[in-house]
Amino acid sequence: MTAITFIGFGEAGGIFASELARDHAVTVWDCKLSGAEREPMLTKARQAGVRAAGSLAEALEGAALVFSTVTAGSALDVAQQAAPLLTAGQYFLDLNSVAPQTKRDAARHFLPGAYVDVAVMAPVPPARRKSPLLVGGPQAEAIASVLSAMGLNARSGADEIGKVSAIKMCRSVMIKGLEALTTECLFAAREYGVEEEVLASLHASFPSLGWNGEFPGYLIGRVAEHGIRRSEEMEEVVKTLRDVGGDGVMSQATVQAQRQLPEKMAERGVSYAALAPFVWQVLAGKVKG
């Protein structure tokens, strides 16, 4: 068994932690464990078969692999807090969706070779431990082999910090942009009473995507459930683009668009969980106006 720690016990961290806990000793630490949400987090930890630590320092003690699965906005801070607490032989795997330069800035706080850049290349649900992971950095080959042996879908992507994250960030321009565009397009189409015609036209142009099926609802659902977190990720995408001379105009708009829907939901007291099973047309009616 390998001693593993997850910093961040949200959606991705929770899934990976519970999957790995089947065969390994897994400890988790999340800032919510020291706040008002402590009891729900403890319940979640028990259900996942993991140990909830009392502090970050306690969580890191003795862990061979430390996975950071926090929000994009706190990724660098968490790395800075964890680095001085680690000793030789421990590896910090940064799975957060942040700009390549943010990853390089984080890596400078660690012992040589201890920081590992990891890009999660698809939503963790529904693939769970089979979600594709690209591993980057001087230890990429070795760490990818360790993760693969643990049943994760990992492969080495680059021998330098930041490169696999550049792949992820550039991909996010399209993926999270498409989510935002779909939400904007179909909410307006529904108000005009032309929803079916618009979807039929989109399906005729791009039949392989499934515009006549579950695809639109999936895209809008991602915004409704994770729009705030995804807007933080898109801020890192904008940084990624600007670091190489781009303007990031479209991605900056995506930052606003991803955040807008969940903010409207909050204003109207609409929670994503209460919408299960999720139907985007129902949500559109609830946030209308």
Question: How would you portray this structure in words?
Answer:
The chain has 289 residues and is of the alpha/beta class. Helix content is 52%, strand content 13%. The protein is built from twelve helices and eight strands. An eight-stranded mixed beta sheet has the order 3-2-1-4-5-6-7-8, with helices on both faces. Strand 4, helix 4 (75-82) and strand 5 (91-94) form a beta-alpha-beta unit. Helix 1 packs parallel to helix 2, helix 8 packs across helix 10 (215-242) and helix 8 (163-192) crosses helix 11 (249-267). The model has no long low-confidence stretch (mean pLDDT 97).
Give a brief outline of the structure.
The protein has 12 helices and 8 strands.
Task: Report the uncertain regions.
Answer: none
How many alpha or pi helices? 12
Q: How far apart are the termini?
A: 54 Å
Q: Judging from the principal axes of the Cα atoms, what is the shape?
A: globular
Quote the average pLDDT: 97
Tell me the helix content: 40-55%
**For the largest beta sheet, what order do the strands appear in spatially?**
3-2-1-4-5-6-7-8
Assembly category: single chain
Question: What percentage of amino acids are in beta strands?
Answer: 5-15%
Largest sheet, if any? 8 strands, mixed
Coarse structural class: alpha/beta
Gyration radius, in Å: 20 Å
The overall strand count is 8
Order of helices and strands: EHEHEHEHEHEHEHEHHHHH
